[in-house]
Automatic annotation (TrEMBL):
<dbReference type="InterPro" id="IPR006156">
    <property type="entry name" value="Dihydroneopterin_aldolase"/>
</dbReference>
<dbReference type="GO" id="GO:0006760">
    <property type="term" value="P:folic acid-containing compound metabolic process"/>
</dbReference>
<dbReference type="InterPro" id="IPR043133">
    <property type="entry name" value="GTP-CH-I_C/QueF"/>
</dbReference>
<protein>
    <recommendedName>
        <fullName>Dihydroneopterin triphosphate 2'-epimerase</fullName>
        <ecNumber>5.1.99.7</ecNumber>
    </recommendedName>
</protein>
<comment type="similarity">
    <text>Belongs to the DHNA family.</text>
</comment>
<dbReference type="GO" id="GO:0004150">
    <property type="term" value="F:dihydroneopterin aldolase activity"/>
</dbReference>
<feature type="domain" description="Dihydroneopterin aldolase/epimerase">
    <location>
        <begin position="9"/>
        <end position="119"/>
    </location>
</feature>
<dbReference type="InterPro" id="IPR006157">
    <property type="entry name" value="FolB_dom"/>
</dbReference>
<dbReference type="GO" id="GO:0008719">
    <property type="term" value="F:dihydroneopterin triphosphate 2'-epimerase activity"/>
</dbReference>
<dbReference type="GO" id="GO:0005829">
    <property type="term" value="C:cytosol"/>
</dbReference>
<dbReference type="Pfam" id="PF02152">
    <property type="entry name" value="FolB"/>
</dbReference>
<keyword id="KW-0413">Isomerase</keyword>
Length: 122
């Protein structure tokens, strides 16, 4: 088997609803957000062994993100993205993560507004 370095997990277009924004209407009405996450971790042991204990469980990460977003109230997109990034990098194996969250229809004449944050882990 060839040498394996990092696995890259991508969670694409996770569509959730939350309270996001600082205008009165935004604070009282659930809004759609679309979340894209990229998580890197060393996967050589999982690729060789086929042992689930040696793989990052992306289902657990996703469930934690869903719970946090759907139960939260956020004034700023930066805070929401930062929180999701912290959850995505919570496992000690993660070496890098990137989170982009789109807020559809946030601006007139635009499909969405998005914000991306990245974190390199030791």
């Amino acid at each position: 088997m060839p040498s394996v370095s990092n696995a890259i997990i991508r969670i694409k277009n996770l569509r959730l609803r939350t309270y996001i924004g600082f205008n009165l209407e935004e604070r009282e009405k659930l809004q759609d957000v679309v979340i894209n996450i990229e998580i890197h971790y060393p996967a050589a042991k999982a690729a060789i062994s086929d042992d689930v204990e040696k793989a990052l469980n992306y289902k657990v990460v996703c469930k934690d993100i869903i719970q946090h977003v759907e139960e939260g109230h956020f004034l700023l997109l930066e805070k929401l993205v930062g929180d999701v990034l912290e959850i995505a990098t919570g496992h000690p194996w993660v070496t890098f993560a990137s989170v982009t969250i789109d807020k559809p229809h946030a601006l007139r004449f635009a499909d969405s507004v998005s914000l991306t944050l990245e974190k390199h882990c030791c």
